[in-house]
Amino acid sequence: MGKVTIIAGGIKTESRLNGLIQLAANQLASNGTEVKIIEVHKIQAEALVTADFTHPDIHLANSEIESSSGVIIATPIFKAAYSGVLKAYLDLLPLKALKGKVVLPLGLGGSNGHLLALQYALDPVLKELGAEIILKGQFTVDKQIERLGDGLYEIEITAKERLDSALNQFISLLNQNSVEV
Known about the structure:
By secondary structure, this protein is α/β, with parallel strands linked by helices. Helix content is 40%, strand content 25%. The chain is built from 6 helices and 9 strands, in the order βαβααββαβαββββα. It has helices at 17-30, 45-49, 56-66, 84-90, 117-128, 157-180, and strands at 3-8, 34-39, 70-78, 81-82, 102-109, 133-134, 138-141, 145-149, 152-155. The strands form 2 sheets. Strands 1, 2, 3, 4, 5, 6 and 7 form a 7-stranded mixed beta sheet that branches. It has a two-stranded antiparallel ribbon with strand order 8-9. β3 and β4 form a beta hairpin. α1 (17-30) crosses α6. The chain is globular and about 45 Å long. The protein starts with a strand and ends with a helix.
């Protein structure tokens, strides 16, 4: 079925955002999809801040995106926008890097007040990067994800059902897109 890269735009390793990432990665893997995860906060900071396109971390991350048929972008929402570290990385993607790829934005925030952040803040950037197939972003409130310990998370049932539905649509579009190519 191809490869999907998940861009994890969180700012730390232990985050409820990982619950969304794990759910997506597990569902994709169970459908025979190769999954790569780019943890943006682990990319060398100076390379991100100084836009060092030649840095090996940037080159590796960009090559993962280039070789993928789909991209999931997972980000915490702060002050009605996606994370700054995610923006720093998206600015380093080549022009039209998302052209021909199926894209699914996933957001996590403290309240429903951030519900439209994916649509109004992130979607325009994704379109600028050439994304033509952008699924409706899925926003989850952080209290809907429980930390179980040992890097495991449990997602509240209604949020999980909504996310499962979006992931199934993403997988379906990936399959259609790979047939058309």
